[in-house]
Design goal:
The chain is mostly helical and 311 residues long. It contains 9 helices and no strands. The chain has one domain. It starts with 12 loop residues before the first helix and ends in a 5-residue tail after the last helix.
Length: 311
């Protein structure tokens, strides 16, 4: 049985010409049927797709910026509330405790020293401050979620948020520890002298160890409430700066319906001396100082020239 293989025959020149005329007629008929240019249609479609993607991206960016600005405002409100609670606690409890404790301790030590020198002294009536403190409830978990998950703040503000969490935990532990000391102080039977030695951390004759638990707890409360105030204020101020920069960068481009941010007013607390001294945090602040940019140096030079100073 013989198999015959039929090989394809290359089209002849006349066939190629006929095929070219057919495609030309087909394209002419398609253009007349659709009434438009196919190349122009492709260009228009591509341009429309690009514009559509740009509009969608612009709309999504605007939505995300507005959402972040609203989140920043919410986080700032939480920071201000948290810092205000710390300031009130310092004003009502911690500051009077710290001040009275050290004043009473100096009076007791002075009286005891006078008695040792042979002077006649009146009996000491020590007003022991044995009032327990209650840790304040703070929406710190909500603030954590906003700052760490929904706001793109970096640098000092982000570190301050971490410090706040640590400071709140330390303050709560110090409050509970002092409450335990108060319960122990009330429970154990002691003489008046023993109470003074225990409460004020005085040296007991014949005993090398000094019980300074009350003294250290008062110092810890005072320092930790200052830490809480300082870092919560830093976070609030840095959120304001970040939100202002974000709004300034996109407000003209997207016509954002978000009003300008206003800086928190800490004047009442500063006037009453309740804000911590920043010199205590100089090393921490030094870690986040940045060199001025070329534009900032130029602006400073312009201000000095306008003010009449030396450039």
């Amino acid at each position: 049985m013989t198999l015959l293989l039929r090989l394809p025959i290359a089209p002849q020149p006349n066939q190629r010409a006929a095929w070219g005329r057919f495609m030309s007629n087909f394209l002419s008929q398609a253009q007349s049927f659709f009434g438009l240019n196919i190349l122009g249609t492709l260009i228009t479609a591509a341009f429309g797709a690009i514009v559509g993607a740009w509009v969608a991206s612009r709309r999504e960016t605007k939505r995300s910026v507005i959402a972040e600005l609203n989140t920043i405002n919410a986080a700032r409100a939480l920071c201000f509330s948290i810092c205000s609670k710390f300031i009130n606690m310092k004003d009502q409890h911690i500051l009077p405790l710290h001040r009275d404790y050290h004043m009473d301790r100096e009076v007791v030590i002075g009286t005891l020293d006078a008695a040792k020198s042979g002077a006649t002294v009146d009996p000491i009536e020590v007003p022991y401050n044995l009032q327990t403190l209650t840790p304040i409830w703070l929406p710190i978990q909500t603030l954590e979620r906003l700052v760490f998950e929904k706001i793109s703040i970096r640098g000092r503000g982000l570190v301050a948020a971490v410090e706040i969490i640590s400071c709140i935990d330390a303050l709560e532990k110090s409050i509970n520890y002092r409450n335990e000391l108060i319960a122990e102080f009330k429970k154990e039977p002691m003489s008046q002298r023993q109470k003074m030695e225990r409460y004020f951390g005085l040296r007991v004759p014949g005993i090398e160890m000094v019980d300074e638990r009350f003294a250290s707890s008062v110092a810890a409360l005072y320092n930790q409430i200052d830490d809480c105030i300082f870092f919560s204020r830093i976070l609030a101020d840095d959120l304001f700066e970040y939100g202002t920069s974000l709004r300034k960068r996109f407000a003209w481009r997207y016509r954002l319906p978000i009003p300008k941010l206003t800086r928190d007013d800490w004047t009442p607390a500063e006037t009453k001396g309740l804000m911590p001294n920043q010199d205590r945090y100089a090393n921490w602040l030094q870690a986040f100082r940045t060199s001025p940019t070329l534009m900032q140096r130029f602006r400073g030079w312009v201000r000095s020239v306008v003010a009449g100073g030396n450039p």
